[in-house]
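Re-running ABC transporter permease to confirm reproducibility after the cluster update. Everything else is unchanged from the original entry.
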Amino acid sequence: MKKYGPAALIVLFLFGLWELVSRIINLPFIFPPPSGVAVRFWELKETLVLDHLPSTLAIILLGLAISIVLGVSLAVWMVMSETAERAFYPLVISSQMIPTIALAPIFIMFFGYGIWSKVVVTVLITFFPITVNTFDGLKSSSRELRELMLTMGGTKKDIFFKVQVPSAKPHFFSGLKVAVTLSVIGAAIGEWLGAQSGLGYFSRRMMTQFDGAAVFAPIVLLSVVGIALFLIVKIMESKSMKWRKLK
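Result of re-run:
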């Protein structure tokens, strides 16, 4: 616990400062204190957890799954083919030049207010770190090891699975840890702009009712979801790379 002591103290200080400033301003419908958010969260816990959390989780998990499959597949293809790298790598970079929030209304217009418009937004946000990190990891494998495998009679398949994949694992998990946190943002953005359920939708609905504490309550739950997903990925990373000492 000593390792996380400084971070815990900083968090407590920030929450204390938030509480103090909120009490001084005394505008709870705009800037509610943390204690008010906690009380409101407890009052709304069943609605948030049972009615809206499943919708948001479905968007996050589906978007992440699609991003992992497409991102890793494209990264492998670009490593194997210089033509594919020249064709797709600039497009992958360019996809991040346009603000996602500007494209979200277009996706809603195309796919409607169902789950797929929000999934597309999530994929667009999470696809980039997974693809680029995996690609860089596969490209960073030791040239000496690849040449040694060839001299020992190794095939391209052997080199890929025994040299390039282990080299890419740390990069892949780094990208995935970024992606899981961004997936929460993507799902929330999609639900804010158009949805019939979900934590982002609930927060926007409470904003129209000037219920500041209820606006913050689903945001707290979104933060918990993001932290939980990050920790799950970190555990997966630790289990799949026991040779690497993770701090």
